[in-house]
Amino acid sequence: NGSVNAITLGADSVYIGGDFTTANGKTANRILKLSFSGAVDPLFSPATGANGFDKSVAALAFANGSLYVGGEFNRYRGGWANGLAKLGVTGVQDAGFTAKESTNGRVYSVAVSRSDPAVYFGGIFNAFKKWDAHRIGKVDSRTGVLDLEFNPQPG
Which of 85-94, 97-106, 110-119, 143-152 bottoms out in mean pLDDT, i.e. has the lowest? Predict the structure, then answer.
């Protein structure tokens, strides 16, 4: 019932993010996990209780069994997730990923490094927590801690 803004492949599934709130008549607030045959994963998007993001999902990246999500959102399943979140394959937010209380704006792109434990993200923001992050940032993919040495200046 709304737009699809991002698609990424997991090990055995397809993840979809956007501005929708339902899929196949079931609640799926802006994020959805499908099997390769197109069946909705009911564990990832439960029919009752807190479900999904409160605002738009713009970017998805899957690596090492985790889904990294970027967007305009502030909350996921009732918990904090300001613009950047890390989810497990069952849809549970990784509590150890501290970037969930991060940007002061929207995240439009997310990429996971294949050579080091890093997540790069870009969008419309100028801060990550209390640190300067001019529309681009890099965090540790395990902890969500900002890499302060990665600091491209706006041009």
Answer: 97-106
Backbone angles phi, psi at 71, to 5 degrees: 175, -160
Q: Full-prediction pTM beyond 0.90?
A: yes
Q: How many whole angstroms separate alpha carbon 106 and alpha carbon 84?
A: 9
Q: What are the Cα distances from residue 143, in Å, to 4, 118, 149?
A: 28, 10, 16
CA nearest 109: which of 126, 84, 134?
84
Query: How many Cα atoms within 13 Å fall on the side-chain side of residue 120?
Result: 10
pLDDT digits (tens, 9 = 90+) for 71-85: 999 999 988 888 999
Distance from the first to the final alpha carbon of the chain: 39
- Ramachandran angles phi, psi of 99, nearest 5°: -70, -5
